[in-house]
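Instructor's aside before we start: the two examples that follow are unrelated to each other. I chose them only because their records fit on one page, so don't look for a connection. First example below.
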Amino acid sequence: MGKKDRDEWIVKCPKCGRIRESCRHVSRDDVRRIIRLLDAGVEVYQAEDEREPTESHIHEPPRPVAQVVAPRFTMGDLVLAEPTREGLLDALTELRHKGLMYRRWGLKKVMKKTKGLSLLFAGPPGTGKTMAAEAIASELGRPLHVVNYAQLENMWVGETEKNIEHVFHTALEATPWMNRDVNVLLAQIESYPGVVVLATNLAKVMDRALDRRVDIAVEFPIPDADLREKIYARLVPKEAPLGKDVEFETLAKKYVMSGGSILNVVRQAMRTSLRRGKRHRITMADFTHAAEREMKKSTLMSADHLQEPVRRERIRGYA
């Protein structure tokens, strides 16, 4: 903002009151875009009309708290592609041998400071990202702090940054573990001494500045047919009364889906069987019907049910 603009306007932060260039809540770029920030709680007055300091906004939401999750899975529970498993084992290796790497092998002299470990888990929904985070925490005997980035975002200026800082500081006090989608945690990640797991379904839209701050990037792809067959075998309980015609290999080859979707198929097959009665077995037809329904789910969820259907009328003999 130029000198002329500073003379004509007084910018008030909802937290700090009057500011000149910037404050801990409003950056210089925010000030330059002040008109766009009017709806976000920043008030701008002409210099001759200065008013009393602005109080905190009454609609300010409570500070978010990370959900502490007791890990339910171990590495042995995961059915993953080999490159994915290698990435997780690399992370566990460094975490278990950090002292050896940084002290005895001299890595601390190169990096100047011992930093934490930041991981990026990227892949479609249902491919095991959250399970893998729990498995890593379980292998190391640590709790997992789960944070949904959407819950950190706040329309009020500076609040998103404060929420992020609060989450990291809270995690430090209770053994640091975090998970979920993040784009604006760059400074915190770089100096954080704990372990951060960023999980996203849309890695391509994340800030490129994140690249150098991520120590290990792990891709979680849709499993191939062989892995899908193993996932079916893992997810169908031994106690389930399967019909003799059930072939996981056939299902795995025909229907391309994630592990999360396969779990939905297993549950739906059980429901279909139970509708015929408790004494009936779960048949191949039940699994096929369930898989077909699961495949159609994405089409159903992407449909616009508020849009009126296209009307077709016959005009001069043409449809």
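Example two begins here.
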Amino acid sequence: MVEARGRPLAIVASTASPLRPSSGTVRGGLDAGRLLLLVGLAAAALWLWDVPWLAPLRLLVVLVHETGHALATLAFGGRVERVVIGADESGQCLSALPPGWLPQVAVYSAGYVGSAVSGALQLLLAFRFRLHRAVLLAMGVWVTAMGLVYAGNGFTLAFCLGAGAVLLVLSRLLPPAAVQAVVMVLAVFTGLYALFDLRDDLWRSSVRASSDAALLAAQTHVPALVWAGLWSLLSVAVLAAAAVVSLRKAAPRDSEALETLRSLAASGTSRTTPRP
């Protein structure tokens, strides 16, 4: 039971060789090497999803899910009170929302759909733009910030600080190929997490009864199965579009300035041009 303070509280729960980018003309077709790599990563993730030693990775994508709820809350002028993740891979985002149908729909939808969007962005940045190190650094900062600002219990704080420290260290110390591999694995797991949980919402009534879809159904009187179906379609569409764009063959860059910008983002260093 939750005690409301001021505005209504919304509890959102959940059980997330390098190739050149191109701004030039697309030659058409999919890159076979990238396609095989993506299929291989997805197959490995499916095969190893439930192994105990991958629990930290699953907790990380749970945090992605809850971050989606938190960002949507802030976007609509609400207040995030705390975010909690559990050792059993459950999660909660407790937030105060302004009244209205749209904020409720946006916030409850942002967990699953937000996980899909996060996975899609990671795919694009990893496969298409090679910003692996910058992505890993940003993830480390994000996880640490979530722990310091919103952690609702000791386990959440410890996990966020520990995982954030690991991501930050890896972003600085790993060689380029290893950083690329880590970001690709995170992208695949984040996307699959959204699809796995939506599958449970669609086909397992016992799970659906306490899911985000059920909570939103109670607010809108639209059946949970409808929300789960809509979120599934959106998530699949977002991930499929990102995969197609990421796997396309493309011409090399013609712009040296854009290549330099990508290198600077990956290395995290500054660079100045001498004046004559």
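The chain has one domain: 9-14+28-246.
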